[in-house]
Amino acid sequence: MYGKGFYANPVAASATVEGMRIILLGATGLVGRAVAAALEPRHDVVPVSRTSPVEADLANPASLDALFGTSPDAVVCCAANVPLRPLADLTDTQVLDDLRAKLLGQVALARRAVERLPAGGSITLTGGTFTEPIPGSALGALVNAGLEGFVRSAAAELPHGPRINVVSPGWIGETLEAMGEDGGRGTPVAVVAEAYRALVEGDANGRTVVPR
Q: Which residues form a coiled coil (predicted)?
């Protein structure tokens, strides 16, 4: 089923799947570490960052080719991020850099994964959600909307290929706490990680999942 979904019970939506080799980009970040912890009990997770033994950078698409030498079953990307930037202060260079890093970089990753993953594999990307417009969020909103549209349409083009979905968390509770804000306004990182795990192990396709 294609479309946007709100994730209330990730565990109940999962299939019983074990023993997959999963490439995890952004494995050293807050979300990446939590996703690794959620997947590692049942799968072989290959952590990837700019400094890991298996190295890749979304801003350098050519570096992504090396990831698939490990013959993975699934790819999860938690590496993408677009900082808040006031619209009036944006430069053309900043716009292009942020598009390359989060939108175009993940599209490049997905394109390579489609060619190399098995038909039963999966691709899970990272978007984001703003419950309401906030200063500096215009470019991030553009990227997130682009990812949602890309995933929805790409899934329709790959009826027999790997599944593709995107997780779109809002503020992470632990991030808010680190900023001195009320962490209760965000989603606990463990809940966000369960959304990734459920998409990897389940059968959803073309979905935008907002962890709650």
A: none
pTM of the model: 0.90
Q: At 14, is the secondary structure helix, strand, or coil?
A: coil
Q: In the chain, where do the E strands start and end?
A: 3-7, 21-25, 44-48, 74-77, 122-126, 163-167, 207-211
Q: In what order do the strands lie in the sheet with 44-48?
A: 3-7, 207-211, 163-167, 122-126, 74-77, 21-25, 44-48
Helix, strand or coil, per DSSP, at residue 121:
coil
Q: How many angstroms separate the Cα of 189 from the Cα of each of 70, 177, 194? A: 28, 12, 9
Q: What is the DSSP letter of 55?
A: B
Per-residue model confidence (pLDDT) at position 4:
45
- The answer to whether the CB of 15 falls within 8 A of the CB of 205 is no
Let me know the angle formed at the C-alpha of 78 by 212 and 54, rounded to the nearest 5 degrees. 155
